[in-house]
């Protein structure tokens, strides 16, 4: 077998090929792209007997996605994507001096693969449908996170020079279309105080708000109320910065809607979409995010425990002597954990068996977030069973062993 360490950069890859005894057969630098992949194949072919299986070549690289990784998998190599922290810890075993360079990193990756392959996770190729869902779902979630960041910046700026706006638009939300429209027209206190009922009403109607007359009157009164403020020249500078943030937020709102439609389309194409949608607390967006992060490669998760461990919902135990404690996993996939938390919260509200499990946990004086995490852990196990048997969610099958009276 050949063990290849691949330390990648934006425009090149440092690779080292080792044999089963750890001897370096060849170290080289190849460019990114088709030319580099061809040179890598030629390099490996020098040390691989004719008519041998490409599966005898094992490649270790600090990523599990991208065209380069996809090409390695397509070539038939066994590809292992490792966390950079794993590589850094193994580097410390090989060199105590702290020295680091790209060639040494390639050697580290090859050695780690040769000696610790049983502890590493092989890259499993997802279907094209799942890859499309991942791209759309991640882009959509990233845009939402960006909107939240800009909304917080907007809130901070308004609090520093225009606190009345925060009070006026509190019922609407700072990212609402009507709030952004009114702030575009009147970002400074003077201009906001001159807004008429007609202007405010028109913005609320375009945003399809209810009880428009009462809301418009309350907003106008709040904008005209006395408040602590800044000098006019300072307020003017703040107003310009707020208008730019508002413009970004309006653009983000538009693009989030577009991406939401793309998520719906991509998720709808996947053959497992109906199974995901059958799960309690899981809609199109949440289902797409969960599918995107779990992937759909066959046999990626040996059992439900493996899927739970990857999800980060399974607890970890720390024991030393007579002391034993159970903790939440600190290292996890943030996107997947966020989606599973949303699912658990929705399931707790709308599924009787999920609610019973949540109430049972709370009765044991387990905190709200910890109870949701344990509920999410249980739901991941149910999802694994449904995907394995290609069957939709069933309360009877999922919870009968706990709450037979609810699942009947």
TrEMBL record:
InterPro entries: Transp_IS110-like_N, Transpos_IS110, Transposase_20. GO terms for molecular function: DNA binding; transposase activity. Residues 277-358 form the Transposase IS116/IS110/IS902 C-terminal domain. GO terms for biological process: DNA transposition. Residues 4-163 form the Transposase IS110-like N-terminal domain. NCBIfam families: transpos_IS110. This is IS110 family transposase.
């Amino acid at each position: 077998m050949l063990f290849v360490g691949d330390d990648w950069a934006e425009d090149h890859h440092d690779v080292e090929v080792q044999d089963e005894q750890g001897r370096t057969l060849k170290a080289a630098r190849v460019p990114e792209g088709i030319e580099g992949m061809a040179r890598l194949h030629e390099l490996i072919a020098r040390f691989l007997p004719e008519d041998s299986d490409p599966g005898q070549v094992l490649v270790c690289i600090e990523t599990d996605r991208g065209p380069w990784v996809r090409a390695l998998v397509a070539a038939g190599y066994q590809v292992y994507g490792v966390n950079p922290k794993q590589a850094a810890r193994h580097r410390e075993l090989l060199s105590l001096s702290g020295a680091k360079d790209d060639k040494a990193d390639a050697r580290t990756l090859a050695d780690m693969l040769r000696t610790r392959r049983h502890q590493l996770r092989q890259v499993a190729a997802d279907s094209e449908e799942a890859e499309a869902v991942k791209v759309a779902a991640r882009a959509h979630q990233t845009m939402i996170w960006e909107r939240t960041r800009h909304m917080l910046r907007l809130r901070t700026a308004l609090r520093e020079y225009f606190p009345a706006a925060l009070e006026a638009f509190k019922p609407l939300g700072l990212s609402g279309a009507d709030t952004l429209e009114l702030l575009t027209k009147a970002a400074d206190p003077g201009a906001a105080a001159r807004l008429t009922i007609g202007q405010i009403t028109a913005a609320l109607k375009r945003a399809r708000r209810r009880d428009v007359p009462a809301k418009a009157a309350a907003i106008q009164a709040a904008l005209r109320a006395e408040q602590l403020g800044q000098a006019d020249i300072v307020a003017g500078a703040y107003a310009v910065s707020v208008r730019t943030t508002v413009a970004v937020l309006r653009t983000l709102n538009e693009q989030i809607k577009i991406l939401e439609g793309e998520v719906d389309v991509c998720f709808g194409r996947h053959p497992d979409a109906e199974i995901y949608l059958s799960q309690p607390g899981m809609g199109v967006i949440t289902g797409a995010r969960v599918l995107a992060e779990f992937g759909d490669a066959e046999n990626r998760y040996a059992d439900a425990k493996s899927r739970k461990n990857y999800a980060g919902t399974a607890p970890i135990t720390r024991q030393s002597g007579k002391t034993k404690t159970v903790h939440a996993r600190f290292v996890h996939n943030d996107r997947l954990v966020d989606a599973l938390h949303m699912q658990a919260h929705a399931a707790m509200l709308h599924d009787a068996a999920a609610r019973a499990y949540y109430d049972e946990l709370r009765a044991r004086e387990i905190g709200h977030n910890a109870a949701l995490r344990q509920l999410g852990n249980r739901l991941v196990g149910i999802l694994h069973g449904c995907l394995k048997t290609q069957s939709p969610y069933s309360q009877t099958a999922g919870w009968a062993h706990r709450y037979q009276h609810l699942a009947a």
